[in-house]
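Batch manifest line 451
LIGAND: (2Z)-2-iminopentanedioic acid
JOB: complex structure
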Amino acid sequence: MVVEKILASLEKSNCVTDNTFLQAVSEVLTSLEPIVKTDSRYEQFAILERLVTPDRIIQFKVQWLDDNNQVHINNGYRIQFNNSLGPYKGGLRFHPSVSTGVLKFLAFEQIFKNSLTGLPIGGAKGGSDFDPKGKSDYEIMRFCRAFMRELYPYIGARVDVPAGDIGVGAKEIGYLFGEYKRITHNYDGVLSGKPYAFGGSLMRPQATGYGVVYFAREMLAQELQESLEGKICTVSGAGNVAIHTIEKLQQLGALVVTCSDSEGSIYDPRGIDLSLVRELKEEGRHLSLEKYVERIPGSLYTKKSDYPQNGHAVWQVPCFAAFPCATQNELSFLDAQKLVENGCVSVVEGANMPTTPDAIELLQREGVLFSPGKASNAGGVAVSEFEMSQNASMEKWDFDKVDRKLDELMRQIYKRIALTAKEYGVERNFVDGANIAAFKRVAEAMILEGV
Ligand code: NDP
Ligand code: 2IT
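JOB STATUS: finished
ARTIFACT:
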């Protein structure tokens, strides 16, 4: 029995069936193909080969005790992919699906996203296969402390600055920071997304979702002379990114009619009641969205097992704009077909790589404006960098200042990728525009620093 359990767990953590890294690399290299020949230095300095190889992969054992003093062991990771533009920067994900493969894809994407912000930050990602669901606050605290005991030698305010991602919010960052400080006696900006009480930036919790909507607003205004006011929007997810995407969309007068979690989806034709979603999901609460329909008459819950085959309930709902904000590969070819059929004009990614490659191709072919997460969700890491700036200068910026800077930065990202796409003859292909613009900045730095 024990042997079987150990083998099953090893099988899971050693499986190489996760193809997300190859998916991410393949998309980027396809975009870059036409431009690698335009500068002989790319080949001379083996830029592409060096770019797809992480600087280092750190893996460690995390041992912790649950509330009954039972011992648990999880795998912890930090992948430092590229620091040509600045200190390694990227989130930590705590989710049972975490493996080296998933983190390699996320760290690789982060290089390009961080480059698009124009800020001095390199690309990294980390996390653990620890599942925060069903754990007490003390268990989460003990896990975070054990995780940091292994991670601390590899990070630093000018070395590598982790932040949150799926399963990691301000609470976890707070516990991780507390342990870092206890071990090193250093009170510096070694993590971003900290609670405001000790060094966090105002608006970091909202930044990714708000940034997604600022990006969408700019893209729709420039490309279609359209606004979001009065438009039906669909959002997937019910976590940090989804909640703040919904909040900003509602502030701009859009009607958001869906949200989802890993077990099912809500359709509420009168508009999602965000305070109820928060009550069920925020601050580490993992209550099922099924409870939403008990409270809101006229809303509908679809269990994951009742989703269409190879599809997602959220993308079956007619909308003007769709915002996938939960996880990778959650919007399939069939979902894209449905969106096109229903007249959707734009898909703006809030999550990292939520749309499958064949779905992206279809959306682009059908003239749907499509923005890759590395462009439209870059507001989160950008405000993380604002937090690093504030920590380094011992300043505190007010909410409006951060909000204005975020809005301006998202407009700049849109402008940069739209212009790049035009310059390379692929107008409105924001995937190619983002990959090429991001690559050129990183490649230049890699060339200048030598081999
Ligand atoms: P949260 O942990 O706050 O929320 C994640 C949400 O996605 C939850 O609703 C969760 O459902 C759902 N979800 C997670 N895994 C799955 C899955 N395998 N299938 C279906 N649903 C799933 O994470 P965030 O909101 O922070 O992150 C969401 C996405 O945005 C991720 O792709 C992340 O990498 C990306 N991102 C996050 C940034 C940030 O600042 N936090 C910045 C940029 C991108 P449940 O509640 O059931 O677990
Ligand atoms: O995917 C991402 O950009 C994040 N999870 C945020 C990273 C950060 O360092 O704020």
